[in-house]
Amino acid sequence: MGASVKALHFADLHLDTPFRWAGPELARGRRQALRDTLRRICAVAEEQQVDLLTCAGDLYEQERFTPDTAEFLRDTFAELTPIRVFIAPGNHDWYGPASLYHRVEWTPNVHIFDRPALSPVMLADGLTLWGAAHCAPANTAGFLDSFRVDRGGVHLALFHGSEQGDMQFQEEGKLPHSPFRADQIFQAGLHHALVGHIHTPVDSPHHTYPGNPDPLTFGETGERGAVLLTVHESGEVTRERVAVATSTVNDIAVDLSGVTHSGQVIERVRSALASLSGVVRITLSGEVGPDVDLRVQDVAALRLPNVDGIVARLGALQVAYDYARLKEEPTVRGQFVRDVLAAPGLTEDQRRRVIVTGLRALDGRRGELEVH
Q: In this model, does residue 170 exceed pLDDT 90?
């Protein structure tokens, strides 16, 4: 290996994701944002004059891809020529007869690993890239189990798998596809592993998870994106994270305490969104007046020039009824409040819930506001 080699690494883009948390129009916009992000990744590869672009799986969704997606990927990677592109299919874009990878006639600069075991590609004199593919959507064994490099030089690995250390609690809901231990990398004779599957970014001494480069859901944390790596003659790897997302997903809470009508609700939401962009999920909480006509669909339907879309939900939202005043009313409402306040065996929270639910039903507003 005569000189250092530069690579740009990414994973878990998940093209054609359904985005079930969004409506049809917003979901279509999110899917387009993922394509825009891939174009941005390729632009960074050209700007940085890298030697290779690597993808560690879950580039697209096997069960949902379209011929349009196949053509998009073929053209996008073809335009990168002469930069070499290496893809190690994951559990969502697994390699098989019906896969996009098998159907597309790729340009010579694109290499798809198509075996469920690590196989070598010489990148330069003394530098080998070992890659493997998931060939089924589940039950893929660990690629590093019983693997050992069989030649000298510097060795990199590219695969989609689950590191079985800290990752087990960082992303608890993820199944352990192709599990491995961090110490297996060095024991196998590899200098560094470029991996995918875990969406939380991780920079460990001998492996790198870039994280999903563009938001897929709310609450994602960490400096995700693509990772620019320089592989030195000694086998040492230096890294720099590059933000490539072309859109943002925000998750905020809006306190509605004290509002007395729906107009104030909208104004508080507008104020909270004034400095944001992209898609925003809003959780509404607080104690509101009993006459507030609050409907989450009205909040979600807001059209603001600075945001792409709004997802609204109710949090710990309560109705501020004045029970002392209501129980003095010579009305059905007053009698109802008096009866509930006098009812034995209820906790204060249960009593409040019964009163709020009953009063809203008596006011003809059942179902507009959840009781917390």
A: no
Does residue 115 surpass a pLDDT of 70?
Answer: yes
Cβ atoms within 10 A of the Cβ of 328, count? 12
The strand pair at 249-255 and 278-288 is best described as: parallel
pTM of the model: 0.84
Mean pLDDT of the chain: 91
What pLDDT, on a 0 to 100 scale, did the predictor assign at position 324? Answer: 79
User: Which of 230, 315, 237, 218 minimizes the C-alpha distance to 276?
Assistant: 218
DSSP for 74-135, written as a single string: HHHHHTTTTSEEEE---SSS--STTSHHHHS---TTEEE--SSS-EEEEEETTEEEEE----
Residue 18: is the preceding peptide bond cis (ω within 30°)?
no
Q: Give the 3-state secondary structure of residue 170.
A: helix
Count the neighbouring beta carbons within 10 Å of the beta carbon of residue 102.
12
Give CA–CA dist 33/1, Å, rounded: 38
Backbone angles phi, psi at 214, to 5 degrees: -130, 140
pLDDT tens-digit readout, 144-163: 999 999 999 999 999 999 99
Per-residue pLDDT reduced to its tens digit, 293-333: 888 999 999 999 999 999 999 998 887 777 778 788 899 88
In the chain, % of residues over pLDDT 90: 74
Instruction: Give the long-range contacts of residues 130-133, CB within 8 A, separation 24 or more.
Output: 130/155, 130/156, 130/157, 130/158, 130/190, 131/86, 131/88, 131/157, 131/158, 131/159, 132/88, 132/158, 132/159, 133/88, 133/89, 133/94, 133/95
Cα separation, 180 vs 198, in Å, equals 12
pLDDT at 169 over 70: no
Q: Which residues lie closer than 8 Å to 216 by C-beta, 6 or more apart?
A: 14, 17, 19, 199
| Residue 64, CA distances (Å) to 58, 98, 139 in order | 12, 12, 21
Joined together, the tokens standing for residue 260 give 């007395």
d(CA 306, CA 308): 7
CA-CA distances (angstroms) from residue 165 to 169, 172, 293, 326? 8, 12, 50, 58
Give the SS3 label for residue 222.
coil
> Residues 347-352: what's their mean pLDDT?
84
Q: Could you give the C-alpha distances from 172 to 14, 136, 142, 162, in angstroms and in order?
A: 19, 22, 19, 11
